[in-house]
Amino acid sequence: MILTVTLNTALDVTYGVPALAPHSSHRVDTVTERPGGKGLNVARVLAALGHDVTVTGFTGGATGTVVRELLAREAPSVTDALVPVAGSTRRTIAVVDAATGDTTQLNEPGPVITPAEWAGFLDAYGELLGTAEAVALCGSLPPGVPVGAYAVLIRQARTAGVPVLLDTSGEPLRRGIAARPDLVKPNADELAQLTGSREPLGAARDARRRGARTVVASLGAKGLLAAAADGIWQAAPPAAVRGNPTGAGDSAVAGLLSGLVEGLPWPERLARAVALSAATVLAPAAGEFDRAAYDDLLSRVAVTELATAA
Amino acid sequence: MILTVTLNTALDVTYGVPALAPHSSHRVDTVTERPGGKGLNVARVLAALGHDVTVTGFTGGATGTVVRELLAREAPSVTDALVPVAGSTRRTIAVVDAATGDTTQLNEPGPVITPAEWAGFLDAYGELLGTAEAVALCGSLPPGVPVGAYAVLIRQARTAGVPVLLDTSGEPLRRGIAARPDLVKPNADELAQLTGSREPLGAARDARRRGARTVVASLGAKGLLAAAADGIWQAAPPAAVRGNPTGAGDSAVAGLLSGLVEGLPWPERLARAVALSAATVLAPAAGEFDRAAYDDLLSRVAVTELATAA
């Protein structure tokens, strides 16, 4: 199976309102809820691609119970191996203006994880690695988890011989990358924050020098830039796509992981990731991907080799 | 016991953010949750005043479970007689700007109540009336409940000989008032919407002609205006109070109900209601009242008799 880790799982709540006006009262017209946190989104896409996927991370409180109930509806393709904690899983509220589609996001910080809960997670994670073909470490850290948490999880995966992908930002990314993950997938902002450079190719090479075996940078409408040991590629959709970019990065991660466990060459992995990402932007519901668009786009992604060694 | 009815109970969630900026992403700094809906707020204040109080209305889903768990912490002073439904209790989100204290409110609509659930509620309500000294009908109606619901509940209370207070707005108020409640407590806007008049005394008299035995209008900083069969009174706090007005109207309702079951004359009821209301504005937490401020204000509320018959 493929394992995704979401230490700060969430219940993603979307509110439809006519228009958000600060300091006034709004009647919410529509309410939707789904399990959230990057690793859960990645898992959903992997399952849709036919992979056997297990999710772990923390869950707690009434909101955690709702997340698990919603996840159970996605079984058997997604296996719930979330670890219970005393605190309450966070909510994220996306307030969408009906007229314009503009979104205002409110993200709760998440539960405070105790040292004992973190130690318990490391044990559970170690066991799950025993049957994992690959692992993705995704998203922000909840309060209480050490900032070097991803470095610890990466070393554990490397010791177990499981390829590990890291998708986070800020200091957790900086610390994690030093532990030599197989793949990191920063977006342009995250890469610039890490390296200080806004020039993607130079920054991706810098990130490799910091410890990442491969860097796949997501460049929005320009697609993906991959810097691997054996080459550098750019992969772009056939045309710019318009829609809701929520979850596009998570779909790219799912494409990369899926290609990794299938042993696809880099150009094919990148084409899959770009097509999934674009098909997610095109889907009406945030974070879903449009299957027909994906099938159509897959053969039309342009992959260019920029160099034969990074 | 005193019975309060909250057909559209809520989980009131408060988010502290530095400043709300539409169409951007916010990290929420503080999250607080408490049982909400006007009747639950009224019950909390009645319990603090030493009354035995029972709450009923609808509750359902994961959010309903949280509301009941939080209510249980207030037991034994508040008895939970909420009726379970299949839909999910609504959340209200108050986003408070840390710098200015300005609040942006997002209110979910509430669960859709089926005809069978409404019929079941009427049975439960009828039983509760058997031991009630007074009943307060509070707040908005969830989807599915007939717009004339309060008229039905008022007639049932009158048949059972239980004094009934109505605190709602719009069409449910208009329909309810025609069923001859003992007391309605509109604010200035609700009274103007009902009667078409912004002149409080004339509008209160109009509301009496529409069926309310007594009208107590809440006029913000100006206090309360009461139009009863045996007189008209104005009750005002000794000075304008500054603070968070959330829940001030619910505290006034609690003061009126409390004075009713204790058989206090109108001037004393109104003084209590005004002091509680002002002490709620002064309390740091939304919807709580400041006990010391209440004790201090109680003797200092000015009650003026404007006429000896309405």
TrEMBL record, chains A, B:
Q: Does the keyword Cell wall biogenesis/degradation apply?
A: no
Residue ranges of coiled coil:
none
Q: What is the protein name given in its UniProt record?
A: 1-phosphofructokinase family hexose kinase
Q: Which domain of life is it from?
A: Bacteria
Which InterPro entries does UniProt cross-reference here? Carboh/pur_kinase_PfkB_CS (IPR002173), PfkB_dom (IPR011611), Ribokinase-like (IPR029056), Tagatose/fructose_Pkinase (IPR017583)
State the Pfam families in the record: PfkB
Q: Which UniProt keywords apply?
A: ATP-binding, Kinase, Nucleotide-binding, Transferase
Q: Where is the Carbohydrate kinase PfkB domain?
A: 19-287
- What is the organism field in this record? Streptomyces sannanensis
Member of which family?
Belongs to the carbohydrate kinase PfkB family.
